[in-house]
Amino acid sequence: MPVSRRRRSTPATATMSVVAALSAVLLGTLSVGPSHADEPPSADQGLLLTVSGTGNTWSRGVRLSCPDIHGRHPHAGAACDALAWARGDMDALPGEPHTCTREFDPVTASATGTWRGTQVNWHKEFPNACSMDSATGPLFRF
Fold this sequence. Notes:
Layout: H1 11-31, E1 47-52, E2 59-64, H2 76-85, E3 107-115, E4 118-126, H3 129-136
């Protein structure tokens, strides 16, 4: 007559079962996409700042949120101060006026996203990088 051997549950196997169940639930939650993918980004996502050369031959960019808790922008404090001074109006930035050469090597600066809950979609072409820096100050120094 065969003897049945029942497995006894030990605390270790019970704990492993609970961990496995929680892992499955968490993975299921993480794999679900956003339900409102067409919604605009929330106010805390900040601004995507980009600078590109003539005919978009090169481009660089950084995300700035104020305060910059992620440390993405190299001059975040000064950039956030300039934005606050201008109340988010990119055309009203205080800049840091200085003399530039008259070299024509156009650059385009853009800022898209949200600043303090307000949608921003700003683009401006400057005759060269020096004039952009003079007009926008630390905002596009990255």
